[in-house]
Amino acid sequence: MNEYDLVKINSSQKNGFISAWEAAFNRKLASEVYEWIFDNRNIIYAFIQEGEIVAGYCLYPVSCVWQGLPATALLCNNVFVCPGHQGKHLFVKISKASLNDAHENNYGAIAYGVPNVLALPGHKRVGWGDQDKIGFLEKKVFRVNKRQKNEWFFGQLSEPDRSGLAECSKKASKEREFSIVKDRDFVRWRYESKPGVKYWFGIVRKKKEVVAYCVCKFFGEKSALHIIDLDGTDKDALASLLEDVEAIPEGFKLINVWSTTIHRSLFLSNAYDDSEDGDNFIAFNVSDLKPVYFGQNINFCLGDNDVY
């Protein structure tokens, strides 16, 4: 028997996993947040020693385009080692064991994550490819009375709008090196059911077909509006939505978006500038257990992570 047994956590074991997570991070979240992130889609691994969870690792499957083809990506959304078991290289051990299991079970072709500065060295020791830091493109705005040209919704989408957004994302993502596809399940999970958060949705249709969409979130603490997601197949429609963003009825003084958007040139042409802020970005080829280093033809946005 191995010193640590790798198990996949089932519904009856989730409370124990959550207790271990709380001990590792010394914090507690609302029950609805645990239900959201540790749902039945999340692939939840744990190291067990003598009946006790000592480390955890989570991979959330989402649809994507990878090297121009439809695939499944795995968002690395949680890694932890419990107090009393740190200093035993468990971060690296559970990471390798979990990724090997995902490889053997064909759970996904590629994994990605946005780790904090403390976790990054551990991921690099596992063999993840460390990309250039993700910066922000930002624009300071002075509010004027503007009218939006397109349809905007707050909080929830209708089923036709949800399906239209999903189909638009699928078409826009074709032939990219890497892009998360916002299918209906993703939209429901990430944009419509995250506890305590409501998003603004902008949609442009042409001949009843959604050709561009935008998702935004107001961050009151910094008087900022995050463009969580902006994508589509029609350049004019994308530009129109970006103009609409400034008329969202929230008290923001700054608009920002991750610099890894494939529409970077559109933002630059609309007076957005690079900022000094940056997030880590890592990727791993689950199919052959090797690091991934992206080129330029990727679309990666705030919505592709679970945090914002």
From TrEMBL:
Any matching Pfam family: Acetyltransf_9
Highest rank taxon of the organism: Bacteria
SUPFAM superfamilies, A to Z: Acyl-CoA N-acyltransferases (Nat)
GO molecular function: transferase activity
Keyword annotations of the record: Transferase
UniProt protein name: GNAT family N-acetyltransferase
Source organism of this protein record: Vreelandella rituensis
